[in-house]
Amino acid sequence: RMAVSPLPRLDTAAHRSLSVVALGFRVLVRKPFPTVEGTLTLTGLTSEVEVIRDSMGVPHIYADTPSDLFMAQGFVHAQDRFFQMDFWRHISEGRLSEMFGSAQLETDRFLRTLGWGNVAKAEYEADTAQNRALIDAYTAGVNAYLSDRSPSELGFEYSIIELLNHTYDPEAWSSYQSIAWGKVMAWDLGGNMSSEIERAMALGVLPEERASQLFPGYPGDRHPYIIPSDSPAESGVRASAPIPEGAVDLLGGVYTAVKAINDLTGGSVSDGVGSNSWAVSGDHTPTGSPILANDPHLGIGMPSIWYQVGLHCRVVSDDCPFDVTGFSFAGMPGVIIGHNADIAWAFTNVGPDVQDLYIEKLNPDNPDQYELNGEWVDMDVTTVDLGVGGGGAEELVIRRTVHGPIISGVYGPLDEFDDAGVETPGEYAIALQWTGLEPVTSLIAPIIGINTASNFDEFREAALLFDVPSQNMLYADTEGNIGYQVPGAIPIRTKGDGTVPVPGWTGEYEWDGFIPEDELPWVLNPESGWIVTANNAVIDEDYPYLITEDSAYGYRAKRAVDLIVSNIGMSLPEHGIAQFDSHDLNAEFALPYVLDALQPADVDVSDIDREALDELANWDLQSFAGSTGAAVWNATWRNILARTFHDELPEDIHPSGGSKWFEVVRNLLMD
Q: Which of 3, 219, 294, 321 is the Cys-Cys partner for 277 at CB 3.0 to 4.6 Å?
């Protein structure tokens, strides 16, 4: 028996108010839900298009022509993800202040200086008429959805924005904006700028010999290359140019800006985040057909960065060649990762070194000039207006050298380039040279090519159009083949290796073209019967060109290879299980040192510490949620790094704990 007290009496007027608020909230949330049943009329379609959503809500689109197919994809993307698309295009064009007000001005200054939107416009104009037609059809589908809907019908987020910014009204979609998001992805996946700055900061506080300990070479004697090496060797440490004292503070400011943009975009080029893929030939599978597995790790978002979709021509022909399913980006036509009737493909990041920071020496009498080969040269100076939601605007001056835009001083007040009498704090500025800042083949072209490829030659031809970002592209087909291709515009340097900022005034550290397409690494049906990529080094130092000195250190790749080799003949579900493996190879090596130091009975530790040590001693080295051993180890690892490095390194470059630090500590323990 339980006594139940009566509820307090609720004032009826207040009760009615709460009910109205709850009902209003429900209406606002449901208002933008997409129509998924019935018939809709879209002006511009040439024939009927059918969209079938499966039990998981994934749309499969069936049409008679490519233009109808892509128009429908644009419509469906906008139905489900328009606020995401709108937010992304404002990132790519440096226009966040238009949506969210003056709080985003610092971010916009940096993004507008990079100029991704202008590059995307140039790439759209340079694309083939056929590709532009498909992008335009996609754009027409997006705008067909927008045409008769208020902002609150497009996404619940607009009801929130309305409270803060009454002036914001989503504009129509433009075709180049489908290309611009590819620039943001290229930023996330495309360079080593942060590592360059970290090296410079380390060199600022440590002798070069000790700073080099923090950036070890790839351990090719222990961990695999993607293309197997006959003579594995550890990369050596290359000499670097000295960093002028006046440039160090500027680099710190750039580092702050880069981290802020990475936080905004979900930047995945960070220590501890990485993708995995492997292809295994039919000789090693129960069915005799290849298995391709891909686990592409990008920043977590809500909604996801990925959008699953199927694009199907009712009759597949030369006129309508699409029959593809997989994962797309909202805002971009086509399927990024997936399979068609003949081939499947996967992506992981190569992480090539396609970004270089140049320290430019400024004319102390004219901040619009910089030194180059002993002469003062005029910068390219342009002015743009940054719109601010709620009213107002700010003028931004963008300066470019022969190496690229000046990115120091554009995150925060532009004091160092202020012409109104503000003293310039130094005689240097930092310019960024990056393949993503110049028009190349748009990301749409290779995606369309791969979506319709039917064999490895056609796949390679399309893959090699991937100028930016460069990706490990893995392949399997219904004929039993597995393959791999590195594409991308990867620069050849006349001097240096791109690992640290270099002087821009000498003319010695310029780019001299790109690795020729026919010399980019690739392989078809390797003798081993498998190919593994996990952001590890592509090929050893016998390769005549430098791809990067900042690849992941091969721990995940080694574990994947170990699983495949020790479990030859795994079935498809077993490969899926392998993707969830979380064996900690760092702990496998370092943990015995901890246990040897702390297990003896005469070591003075508390009972709770002893219990923790027992958990470590019995841990299976798998880092699943709920694992006590994993929790204790990660706390221990965090403290090992803090006690070893925090006292000597600037806070900005304190250890993040990922594979680079596995290798740093391993080398120290081995010494």
A: 294
CA 614, distance to chain mean position in Å, is 39
Q: Burial letters for 398-436: b for 16+ Cβ neighbours within 10 Å, e otherwise?
A: bbbbbbbbbbbbbbeebebbeeeeeeeebbbbbbbbbbb
**Distance (Å, whole) CA 23 – CA 448:** 45
**570 exposure class (CB count in 10 Å sphere: 0-12, 13-18, 19+):** buried
Residue 293: C-alpha distances to residues 24, 339, 542 (Å):
45, 12, 29
Question: How far is 642 from 619, CA to CA, in rounded Å?
Answer: 23
Residue 354, token pair as written in the block: 């396609």
In the 3-class helix/strand/coil scheme, how is 32-55 assigned residue by residue? CCCCCCCCCCCCCCCCCCEEEECC
- Compute and round to an integer the Cα radius of gyration of the chain: 27
Peptide bond into 303 cis (omega under 30): yes
CB of 334 within 8 A of CB of 448? yes
Alpha-helical runs (H) found in 502-618: 555-566, 572-579, 585-598, 607-617
3-state secondary structure of 382: strand
pTM of the entire predicted model: 0.90
Question: In the beta sheet, which residues pair with residue 377?
Answer: 370
Contact 362, 431 (CB under 8 A): no
36 vs 503: CA distance, rounded Å? 58
What is the C-alpha separation between 112 and 96, in angstroms, rounded?
Answer: 10
- Tokens at residue 420, please? 């109104």
Span 115-159, pLDDT tens digits: 999 999 999 999 999 999 999 999 999 999 999 899 999 999 999
Q: Give 317-336 pLDDT, tens digit per residue.
A: 999 999 999 999 999 999 99
DSSP assignments along 419-480, one per residue: SSSPPPS-SEEEEEEEGGGS--S-THHHHHHHHT--SHHHHHHHHTT--SS-EEEEEEETTS
CA-CA distance, 450 to 445, in Å (whole number)?
A: 9
Regions of the chain where pLDDT drops below 70: 1-28, 190-191, 229-242, 245-246, 266-272, 411-426
Q: How many Å separate Cα 221 from the centre of its chain?
A: 29
Distances (CA, A) of 37 to 33, 75, 631: 12, 14, 48
Amino acid at 668: L
Q: Kindly list the distances between the CA atom of residue 195 and the CA atoms of 214, 271, 467, in Å, as whole numbers in the listed order.
A: 11, 10, 22
Cβ neighbours for 4, distance < 8 A, ≥ 6 positions apart = none
